[in-house]
Automatic annotation (TrEMBL):
Its main location: cytoplasm. It is found in: Cytoplasm. Pfam families: UreD (PF01774). UreD, UreF and UreG form a complex that acts as a GTP-hydrolysis-dependent molecular chaperone, activating the urease apoprotein by helping to assemble the nickel containing metallocenter of UreC. The UreE protein probably delivers the nickel. Belongs to the UreD family. This is Urease accessory protein UreD. InterPro entries: UreD. PANTHER family: UREASE ACCESSORY PROTEIN D. Required for maturation of urease via the functional incorporation of the urease nickel metallocenter.
Length: 278
């Protein structure tokens, strides 16, 4: 994947992370950064898994900013990456903010990619590109949380543009392409769009099977049947998609789904990152 980005008038930042197994735990063995992207020191709240918090010190993304993230999890390693807070895309005077993410998971490795929500202020222009490459025998569990406007303040995303594309590659073959495109108010009330919801979220589990899909659907039926949420399984990728009005409401449904799949797919007990409780 060509991760090169053109010149812009905003921040240019790049972060590379590499995880490898060591006796008893996974270590962050490679870290290269340019510009305002960084990670805190790794945490080990559970055996064998390296927890990392991804930081963007400026506190928000503006038109013309270009952020590039590349993560590699080597065979036998286990990593969980999250963020301490929402990523805010501010109103743009015309330039588009670009964020690209390349996540590589080798055979026998697992990556949990669980950033907090992306909030698009009215008038923001954002383009996100995620490519997730998993070798046969690798495992990925992650989500994308998109908030259009600032519903808590009564601000709708009535102008601006968001174009988010996620590609999933399993052993060199593309198995899923998911895209969210919103241009101002055009998708806000559409029956095939957001249906008046400010939040659009997707959770993905690569390496899942029919038994896991059945368990997720049972959880949804028992606890969240009244919510606009559903699950599908295509070529080994289990996708749970949801609409909502608040981050709290979306996470109240997706965190239990993540916990269920963490046990079924990764063989790990739920261990929410400490930063989620602050």
């Amino acid at each position: 994947m060509n991760m090169a980005i053109p010149e812009s008038r905003g921040w240019q930042a790049r972060l590379e992370l590499g995880f490898e197994p060591r006796p008893g735990r996974t270590r962050l063995v490679h870290r290269s950064q340019r510009g305002p992207l960084a990670v805190q020191r790794p945490f080990y709240p559970e055996t064998g898994v390296c927890h990392c918090y991804l930081l963007h010190p400026p506190g928000g993304v503006v038109g013309g900013d270009e952020l590039e993230i590349e993560v590699r999890v080597a065979a036998g390693a286990r990593a969980l990456i999250t963020t301490p807070g929402a990523t805010k895309f501010y109103r743009s005077a015309g330039l588009t903010a670009l964020q690209t993410q390349l996540l590589r998971v080798e055979a026998g490795a697992s990556l949990e990619w669980l950033p907090q929500e992306a909030i698009y202020f009215p008038g923001a222009r954002a383009r996100l590109r995620s490519r997730i490459e998993i070798d046969e025998g690798g495992q990925f569990l992650g989500w994308e949380l998109h908030c259009l406007g600032r519903p808590a303040n009564g601000e709708r995303f009535d102008q601006g543009a968001v174009d988010s594309l996620a590609e999933f590659w399993l052993d060199g073959q593309r198995v899923l392409l998911d895209r969210l495109q919103v241009l101002g108010d055009d998708q806000y009330r559409a029956a095939a769009g957001l249906r008046g919801h400010a939040m659009a979220a997707s959770l993905y589990a690569v390496g899942a099977d029919q038994t896991m899909l059945d368990a997720v659907q049972q959880l949804i039926d028992e606890r969240f049947a009244q919510l606009p949420v559903g699950a599908t399984l295509v070529d080994g990728v289990l996708a749970v998609r949801m609409l909502g009005q608040s981050t709290e409401g979306v996470q109240a449904a997706l965190v239990p789904v993540w916990g269920l799949l963490r046990q079924a797919l990764l063989g790990l007990e739920p261990c929410p990152p400490r930063i989620w409780a602050t």
